[in-house]
Amino acid sequence: MLIRKLHLHERPLFVEHLRRLPPNDRQFRFAHAHVTDEAIARYVGRIDHDDLILGCLAEDRLVGGAHVAFTGEVAEVGLSVDPDHRAQGIGAELFRRASHWARNRRAQKLYTLCQTDNRAMLALAAKLGMVVHRESGTAEAFLALDPPDLLTVSDELSVGVHNVINEWTDLMRTCGGVLLAPPRSGR
Length: 187
Ligand SMILES: CC(C)(COP(=O)(O)OP(=O)(O)OC[C@H]1O[C@@H](n2cnc3c(N)ncnc32)[C@H](O)[C@@H]1OP(=O)(O)O)[C@@H](O)C(=O)NCCC(=O)NCCS
Description:
The protein is of the alpha+beta class and 187 residues long. The chain has helices spanning 11-19, 23-30, 37-45, 90-104, 119-127, 150-180, and strands spanning 2-5, 52-58, 61-71, 74-81, 109-115, 131-135, 138-144. It has a single domain (2-178), classed as 3-Layer(aba) Sandwich (Aminopeptidase), CATH 3.40.630.
């Protein structure tokens, strides 16, 4: 299981992951009812290039994702985990990474909006030390962020280095295969 930033060309994986959420979870994730497959594609298509999408990959599938959008000093997080991968700590780990990477971008507050009947998200917010304000069916959770430090920077750097090594290995496998293949016999 690997948590890392998704590249632009990998955003379709995020669409597929969100589309696997059943209707009730879609309502929890987007804070409104009847979120269609088309609405999910539009939502992901509109995500700003400067926003972060963190993905949790397991067996070549995106099993969890966090979209972090920046508005001034506030980083807003939308979080989701595939139903068959819940209660394994993935949501908490995505949130922890999102907070580190938001600190690296000098955000001062992490914010998430959820419904007051979303027991899992409210329990997760409490576990992460977020301050929750409830008002008529919705709950806003805030976490004050410290400035970046060695840990937050090395966290993001180590994932970046891991990506570079993986891509390099892939490239070598492809190019090595071409260079070492026996030449085609001429006609
Ligand atoms: C909220 C969500 C992301 C949690 O993901 P997860 O990977 O299952 O969460 P974790 O395994 O990291 O659990 C972290 C904590 O949340 C709490 N929790 C998780 N599921 C819970 C549930 N069904 N009921 C009560 N508490 C729950 C627990 O306190 C847990 O900590 P613990 O294991 O130490 O007791 C997931 O349920 C989900 O995708 N829901 C639909 C989308 C959504 O509601 N998004 C939030 C609004 S943006």
